[in-house]
């Protein structure tokens, strides 16, 4: 057995170095064209890759937030638990979205919705995995300083939170909203499809426990805060 065939941590890390740029590239391609179905075959691998990437970055860096923030919330977050919760949240939300989307589809066709909707939601979360941790860190920062999520600690906190929130909205609208609307367009027509897609996404956000910051309470290691 040659040395190149031996298992090693270095070889595994080299594999990850090749996977991560590809999943980021795929995310960029989906933002440009959310209807590119070829990438649906890579939705699940990219989803797990971005969740793992966030955990690794958080573990290797002292803080994932700019120094303009007053409190180092990253120091109190367990990277492994964050990765696992991002994975669980994305899979659960996608399953809920698929079930909710299947209700109007079943009424119209007596069949469940196309499974492409599930994988497109997974694809959406493969991008949101890069945004959600920033929301969490902002929330930890605000709670530590002001004990109130609604009160920004500084002007930078306020504007940065708005930019991150807008980025999340654009991802959901661009990647999931457009795709879902087009799917329902073949079943209900152009005018109705947008409304059904919107209601499906909003209903998923309401039902999914991961939409509440309380879901991520287990992330915080109080001993490090």
Provide the fold topology.
Layout: H1 9-32, H2 43-60, H3 79-109, H4 116-128, H5 132-146, H6 155-188, H7 190-207
Helix pairs in contact: 1-2, 2-3, 2-4, 3-4, 3-7, 4-6, 5-6, 6-7
A few lines on this structure:
With 225 residues, this protein is an all-alpha fold.
Question: Which keywords apply here?
Answer:
225 residues, mainly alpha
How much beta, percentage-wise? under 5%
Uncertain residue segments:
none
On the 0 to 100 scale, the average pLDDT is 80
Encode the helix/strand succession as letters: HHHHHHH
Structural class: mainly alpha
Task: Walk me through what this model shows.
There is one protein chain. The chain is built from 7 helices and no strands. Helix 3 runs antiparallel to helix 4 (116-128). It has one domain. The protein has helices at residues 9-32, 43-60, 79-109, 116-128, 132-146, 155-188, 190-207. The longest helix has 34 residues, at 155-188.
């Amino acid at each position: 057995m040659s040395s190149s065939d031996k298992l090693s941590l270095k070889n595994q890390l080299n594999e990850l170095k090749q996977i991560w740029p590809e999943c980021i590239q795929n995310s960029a391609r989906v933002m440009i064209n959310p209807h590119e179905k070829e990438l649906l075959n890579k939705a699940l691998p990219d989803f797990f890759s971005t969740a793992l990437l966030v955990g690794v970055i958080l573990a290797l860096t002292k803080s994932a937030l700019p120094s303009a923030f007053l409190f180092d919330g990253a120091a109190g977050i367990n990277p492994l638990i964050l990765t696992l919760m991002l994975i669980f949240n994305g899979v659960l939300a996608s399953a809920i979205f698929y079930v909710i989307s299947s209700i109007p589809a079943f009424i119209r066709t007596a069949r469940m919705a196309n499974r492409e909707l599930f994988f497109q939601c997974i694809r959406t979360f493969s991008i949101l995995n890069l945004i959600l941790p920033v929301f969490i860190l902002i929330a930890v920062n605000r709670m530590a300083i002001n004990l109130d999520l609604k009160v920004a600690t500084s002007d930078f906190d306020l504007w940065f939170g708005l930019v991150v929130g807008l980025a999340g909205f654009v991802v959901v609208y661009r990647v999931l909203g457009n795709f879902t609307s087009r799917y329902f367009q073949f079943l209900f027509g152009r005018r109705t499809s947008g409304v059904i897609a919107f209601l499906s996404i909003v209903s998923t956000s309401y039902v999914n426990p991961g939409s509440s910051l309380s879901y991520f309470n287990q992330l915080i290691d109080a001993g490090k805060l």
